[in-house]
């Protein structure tokens, strides 16, 4: 099912921007060039527009969220271009992973239920991002004067209807391409990592299904062969997680850095006129802030989930029937597996912080602290 999601949904989203990992054609290259050119132009216009309003800290922070999101998207596009072959190599692992029905109907049903729950969460996440993007584009509806969703350099009079419509449509198209990359890249991350989670679950099932005979004396050749297969597959999955971490750690570092600043600016804009925020301020920054928190939360939750799953292999190994009779070779294999599994395989943010719920809490604290500092500077200037 995960491979189906990968090909039918993730690759489809990335292919809209011409950055699908499964094929590279002339049309896909042209689409990629058009999208990056569009976003590059928007980035220049946004930067100049923000620099023109540097005399007002509130205006800068209110409008910088669009630029932060854009920088995040451009960086992700570059990551996909530079490491395309590495991503393809990681996807090859999925072809040699065990089939979901390898250990019977009960195991298959458990894995299928997990996959269905994951798909639901992924689609809810996409819906949240889509709604937040739509609400972001409707910001001008809550203002008394004519304005655009994102403040940028204007080369014509915005009070002219043709000029206003042109810039509005330009920003809608640019934001749509950004949301496609945002959702596509995030989906790629979640799907690839959940494949590792399911494979570790398969290893737990393999340990519980060892064909051990209670009355046997000494090591059983069949059990030793099964253990060799399990240990080799465990090493394969850990290698896959290591490759995954190498591919995404830099992207995660930039993303979490951008997220801290964008959360801080959004919270600042919402609470500038006091707490609770006014309806206008909440509608302008609330959806963006909520989607940002959801994005960081699901990344951290998935990272925590995979780390816990790697540790549970040791529990599954210990629960085998190793105590029933004297099996020295089997016990040595089991001991090595337990010792390796007790070393958490952790996804990291830039190789510095662990991707888990502790990091999520730290990001929220850091955002609040930075917001408090900016508020102090802002009110002192006033």
TrEMBL record:
It is found in: Cell membrane. GO terms for cellular component: plasma membrane. One of its GO terms (biological process) is signal transduction. One of its GO terms (molecular function) is olfactory receptor activity. The keyword Ubl conjugation does not apply. It comes from Protaetia brevitarsis. InterPro entries: 7tm6_olfct_rcpt. This is Odorant receptor. The lineage of its organism: Eukaryota, Metazoa, Ecdysozoa, Arthropoda, Hexapoda. PANTHER family: ODORANT RECEPTOR (PTHR21137), ODORANT RECEPTOR 19A-RELATED (PTHR21137:SF35). It is a multi-pass membrane protein. Belongs to the insect chemoreceptor superfamily. Heteromeric odorant receptor channel (TC 1.A.69) family. The chain crosses the membrane at residues 32-51, 63-83, 124-142, 165-198, 251-270, 360-379. Signal peptide: none annotated. Keywords: Cell membrane, Membrane, Olfaction, Receptor, Sensory transduction, Transducer, Transmembrane, Transmembrane helix. Its main location: membrane.
